[in-house]
Each structure stands twice: as C-alpha cells, then as structure tokens.
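Two records follow; treat each independently.
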Amino acid sequence: MPNNQTEALHFVIACCQSELSDEDIALVCNVLRTQHIPHETLLVLAHQHGVLPLVYKTLKKLYEEEYLPHVSYTDTLITEAKHLYRAIAQKNMLMSAELIRIMKLFQANNIEALAFKGPALAQAAYGDITLRQYGDLDILIHRKDFRHIASLMQEKGYSPHYPIEIFAGDKVMFEMNNDCPFYDRNRGLAVEIHWDFFRKLALPTERFSPWENTETVMINGKDIRTLSSETHLLYHALHGAKHVWERLVWIADIDRFIRSTPDLDWGKTIGMAKNMGAEKMFFSGLVLAHNYFHTPLPDTILHRCQTLKLEPFIAYVEAELSSENPASEDSLAKLSKVIGLRDTLYYKTMTLLEFMFRPGINERRTVILPDTLFWLYWFLRPAGMVYRFIVCRTMKLCSSGTKT
C-alpha cells in the first residue's frame, strides 16, 4: 500500500482521539511540518471515513494552542476542513430537526418507534449532533405498522425507494429486506424505516430484544426514544463487523459510546452476543477501539480480547482502512472474514448459507414476484451469484487480458 496513505490514516486516527497524547500531537505536527502529504488526501480520507468533524475539531484546538506550524499548508488545511465541517453541521442540524418531527408524527398516530444511529448515536456517544457524519435517519418500527407509516411518510413528501404499491402482499417486502428507505429529494433527506436487523447474517433481531428497557436521548431539547445502551452498543459492533470495519467512524463510535456510558452492563451485552453466536463479532469492535483509541475496558474484558487472538483480523482491517481500493461490499474476502468472526461451526455454516441462498435486494431488482411465487427467489439468488462472481469476473479478466 502507498506509504503516504498509511501515514495519512495514522494522522486521521491521531486526530480522532478523545484524549490527545504527546505522541498523537507529535504525529500531527510532523505531518503538517513536512507537508509531504497533500492536504486534499487528508481531507478526502477523513471525509470518506466519516470522521471529518473530529479531525477539524482537533486541528482547530491544536492551532489555537500554538502546537501547529503557522504556514500556508496548515492554514489551507484548516480552512478547507472548516468549510466541510460547517456543511456537515448544517446538514446534521436539519436532519435532527426532521427526526424530531417524524417521531412526533408517529407518536401522534400511536406508532411506537425507536431512533438509532444518526443523531441519536451522535448525541449519546459524542454529546454533540455535529461531531459525527451521517447521511440518513434510522428508525426502528414494528413490522405491523409499516403500511401506516409508509402512508404517513408519503403524505409528508417522502417517496419510498421500493414501489410499495405494486406488491401483491408483504412477503417480498418483509422477507427480503431489513428496511425501506424514504427520500425527500427536494430537501435532500433520507429516512430508513427498519423492521429488522442483519437479515443475511443469521442474527435474529428478536434476540436483541430492542423494545425492552429502551432509553431516551435529548436532542435539541426534545426527548427521543432510542435503544438501551447495551443494545445500541451491540448493534453498532455487529454492524461494524458485518462490514469488516471498513470505515474508521464505526470504530470511533465504539470508543466514544463506551466512554460516555460508564455504567454499561457488560454482562447483559455479552450475554446477548453469545445468544446470537456473535460474541467474537462484538469483541472485534472492542479490540479495534482499544487498539486505535485506547478505549478504557474492564480487566476481564481486556483479558477476553487477548484470548481471542484477533491480531490477523486487525492487520486485515488496517490494510483495508488505508487502502485506496478496499475490497468491495460483497467480496468473498470480506465474507470469509465475517464467517471467521462467528462463534461456532453452526453459526459459521448458517452465515454462509444465508449469504448464498437467502434472496435480497439484487433478486428483487431483477424481478418482483407475487407472494405465491416467492420461493423462486431462493433459486435466483445462487444463480445471480454465479453470474456476478464467476461469469462477470471471467469476462472482465478476459477483456483486460485482450487489452494488454
């Protein structure tokens, strides 16, 4: 991997620390003093990993405290970071206000809903809705309320991502998806309405017990109902592991969430993870957070992290984080890493079978079948995978070979 890209990643990681060490400050100052990494590279990397607000806040603090060299390179970097941060902050404030509006709408219609990720996570973990990048709002609902919610969202100017009105029944919608995105394109807003989590990973949502012991988080002076701290942390750890921690912000989320929740019931969270065959997935997030951000963990948790021997996994994640061409979302390499994080042979096998056979969005995009023919999707899934992974890639290789 390019040396500059690796150094840029370490620069960004240093800027994301909740408590800057002397080594972090020295690393940041050295990059700015030598000026051998284009400031565009640093900003693009920070933005891609969803941590630009954290990077900007650190640079601003160090600049004001006279740590950073007062040269044009530093001035340009901070000025451009400030513009990007302000745009993110303005969008976050708009989205937070919209979340409050939607939650009030649901409450007025006697619909239970839980906000998670987005503003709820930013406020709970970072204490500031502007310190975390997020592109949409995520709301968990009961499956039975979806049709009513879809109608309410459309009345408020949102369009569903899926053509809900043409479904003969609910099987295609609910069995093939975790959620349905809704878009207000005039305002550039996106809201994902969830009724399930992790459809393809053999991680049953009911084992989360998301509706038990819910909490509230105050956003713009309004109480917003959200997941319990233990469930929220577990969700984010499993979400990051599902994507093999391809974005630094997901690791920072784990760090900030733990720091902001000193009374976390570790036994409850680990118990839920074990019940899902996902203890190793959960601990992968803790290991990475402790490795990159020195996240304070109880001694018993640290000992468990060490016994799992995740060093090869950490090395893979770091290579992906600093790569200019990380593995694609549906790559077999990533699938193998996810399978390797499951606790037992049973869950490893189930994860593989779910990936290979459970129909999903690609199959629904190919054809929309009535509920009576839903079973045909289970044959479309492996056929589509053979086409994508073997036929298309073979054709691509042949084409590149012909060109050379």
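The next record belongs to a different protein.
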Amino acid sequence: MKILYVITSTETGGAEKALLNLVRFMMGENAVRVVSLKPLGAVAAELKQAGAEVKTLDMHWYNQSRIIQRIAAEITAFQPDIVHAMLFRGIEYTRVASAGKKLKLVTTPHFDLSKKSFVFRWTDRLLKDLDTLTVAESFSTARYLVEKQKYAKDKVYLLPNGADARVFFPDKSLRERMRREHGYQADQPVFICVGRLAPVKDPLTLLQAFRNLRRTNLSARLIYLGEGPERAKMMTYIQENQLEPAVQLEGEQTDVNAWLNMADVFVLPSVEESLPLALLEALRVGLPCIVSRVGDMPLWVEHGKNGFVFTPGDITLLSCFLAEAAQSASRRIEMGENSRAISERITATSPQYQHLYQQLITGSFHVKTSH
C-alpha cells in the first residue's frame, strides 16, 4: 500500500507528533511519503531519522496560490492508494488538489474548528464532501463536524488520539535521577506543561497563577517543554516577577517521558484543544492533571478524582488548584494512581489506521451510525 501524508507543518505539536508515530508504524509494511506545506521543522528531522521520505513545498504567505498545484503534482508522481491530510491548510488544499482524482482521501483535523473564523468554517463546510472519510481524533471534534458542519454521519469515524504505553510510563528510578540532575528535592512540588509556547496554549495565564502560588509556596517549581512565539513575552514576565529560580523554559525535548516522571502535576491551560497528546502522555505516566474545560480534556480529567478542571483564562481558580495540588503529597499520589487507571482507556491508534486504510481500499469499510 502507498500512503501520501500531507500536513501543514512539521514543527513540534500534537498533530505533528501523531503523524510521526503513525508514519513510524506504517513504514513497516507500506510505501510512505510525507509532504509538509511549510518549511521542515523538528518533527521532519525525526521522520528522516526514522527513514521516511519527507518533502516540503516551502509555503509562505506570498506563494500559497501555487501550493494546490504542487500537491496535485505530488499525488500524480507518487500515485498513492491513500492520501491522508492533517491540519486546516493541509486538509483544505489537499481536498482541492484531489478533486476529480479517483483516490481515497482521509482527513484528520487535529484542531478545534469551532474556534476558527467564519471563513475557515465556511470553507471547510464547502469542501467536506471531497473526503472519502474524516477521522475525528476526539469526541468533541466528531460531534461538531456532524452537528454544526453538517458532515455525513457515515463519513465521520471517531478514533481518539493515543499515547504508547511502551514510551510513556511511571519510572521511580528515572524520577530520582532527573531530580538529582536538576537539583530538585524529593518532596519539592514540580508542575510541568508540555506544549507550544503559543497564545492558544495560554502560557501567560499559567505563569500568573504560578506567581500567585509562589506567594505561599516558595519551594514549588514550574517546567515548560516546548517552543513558540510567546517565549519572549514569557521571559519578560518571568524576569519582571523574579521567577527565574522557579520557572524553567526547557524548549523542545526528545525524552518527554523522563521530564514527566520528574514532575508531580501536569498542567495545560489551553483556550483551544481537541484531545492533546500531551495530556494522554501525562496520564500514562500517572500524573494528576490540571486542565482547562476545552475539547475532550474534561472527559479524561475527572474533577477532584485525577485532577482539576477550570474555565479557560480563570487565573484565580487555576491558582487555587495549583495551591491544593502543591500542599498535599498524599493527595497527588492518590490522584496519580487514578490517572493511571483512567489511562487504561487509551488505545493504540496506528494499527487501527492500518486496518482502516485497507478497508477503504477494498471498499469494505462502513461507519456504524444509529438512527
């Protein structure tokens, strides 16, 4: 089977990480090519290291009009059995490029369309019927596509994101080693956020809430893993509020499991999400999770059981939950055990995609709907 993946970007993000995991799996039995609309990023380097063929269309704001033709040329040259597009521009441009061609087009949004502009939503609704199948990575996405975007029920398949239990797991020895290396005491409360330093992740709200926590708990620490356009603003805020000893911006890291094991609590204050991989990875490691009430996150974080859920942008409420998590190690341990139990619901998605592709090619795939 020949599979062509088209994605907007290969920078580090949830959709890009999902693509990386999927391509690594598919390369075992299939011919795979990845096309990134934008210049190649960190995930592209990992894909190449794994042996995948990766190309960029070098898209910028001034040359987007040519991108559709170039995607069409890639399809003609590669002659794939399956074209799988991800992220908004990757999906919409590939839809147009595939029009009139007899191929199987699969799309996976990996973003919350309800938060996009009217023009984006209108464009998506106009082109949606060009898909052979839309795979929704979260329940909230599937429901929005069917109810609001008027996708046909029999062309939307729910396959939630997954996190590999072989890669993300609790490891006490790893925790001890990481704490020694970074100078943290065994009982020091450490919070961690994994995600792009971008407005959609709202890192400044977390910084403000953490500053409030530090007024009563000077031993608390906060770690950010990720890069993005908000780094300069965050650095300024950290310096202005004398948070340098307590907040670490560690950039992009390859061994996220090690960093999660070093931490006590995972925090994700996003204003927009579908079902973030970072949350599922934290659940696998067994961390209590403090998350905003967006996307599918409240379905995985049961308030008061394995973490806390707050309204996006609510600094006061987030401050209170950080304080509650910081003050009781026994409560953190109990919540962490509940996260591990909840993580058993996470499934492996890549083998399911392999089966789905094969069924699409043979014409035996059907989405079950209730009437």
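Discussion point: The two ends are 34 Å apart (CA to CA). How would you locate this feature using only the token line?
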